[in-house]
Amino acid sequence: MTVTSPRRLVLVLAGVLLLGSLPVGPARAESAAHAKEAARQAAAELAALQPRVDRALRAYEKALGQLAHSVTTSVSADVDADDALLRAAGARRAYNGRVRALYMGGGSAALYASVLEASSVTDAIRRVAYVQRIVQVGGVDAVDSRAASTALLARAGALETDVEAAVVTAADVAERHDELIALLATAAATLSRLSARAKSLAQAEAAAARLRALAAQVERGAAERVATARAIAVPRDFRAFYVAAARTCKGLPWSVLAAIGQVETGHGQNTNMSYAGAQGPMQFMPATFASYGVDGDRDGVADINNPADAIFSAAKYLCANGGGRGPAGLARAVWHYNHADWYVALVLKLAGQIAAKP
After folding, report:
1. Helix extents (H) in 105-201
2. What's the mean pLDDT in 6-34?
């Protein structure tokens, strides 16, 4: 949950650029030379600002990409862990099956005793080798399989640990977005100060076109990254809170609360205070929590850092902003939670994926 409004900044930027393209009244008295010099200076200022804009754009797109990547990595880690558990269980079943077969046949001692019934030395050697294979192969296969499964579980565990240590959240993306938009707004303000005559010169028009292209790239980049995101498995304890909290607001899907929990902190994996001051598993601003805080676990205290309290409070906040009033109301409520179009698109997409899971 942020205190700044990226959408408002984008609209300001678009409005400033649009003003430069609309018909205007008579220009103030200004010589052609003066207008040309003003346009040149503005272009120079924008050129000097360009490297910072480029760096900010790369940082923003990287944060978006990391957000999607951390989700995908978590999914991969979950799959690897499940695969490891299945392999280990399979190895145990196979080994136990061989052991049961031995016992049902009288045990390995009985099998070795059968060697005494051999009709020749060659037959005895063959029987000994056969018994050894039966007794040993199960143990060897089980040991090998257990070793492979242990290594796979260790890999999955390490991967999940890395993910938990580097979870990129909505706050990280919003911070990079705000830095970028602030630079673009500065550039737009530089152009807006030009006279109508100066704005019509080639240098100024080229700069305005470049800013419009950058603004479009920001929105396009967000849409492309959102398209790659996938929902991660919801921890059992958090899932119970999401489901229970959603019941306090008729029409609010629990999967939306879960999606917000994933995007904000990875279901509590990264609860560091955001650059704007948001805190806890659902990243509430303290002032907002003071108004909407709920004692979700009924221990007598509404704690911004308590998962149950934070999730029930998020449900209350969403409900107050129309979260239970159909798709349009839900989208509006999510936008109130974090004022960014990419955020709304991401949360609703993940919510759909979470709802579709068994």
Report:
1. 107-113, 121-165, 170-192, 196-199
2. 55
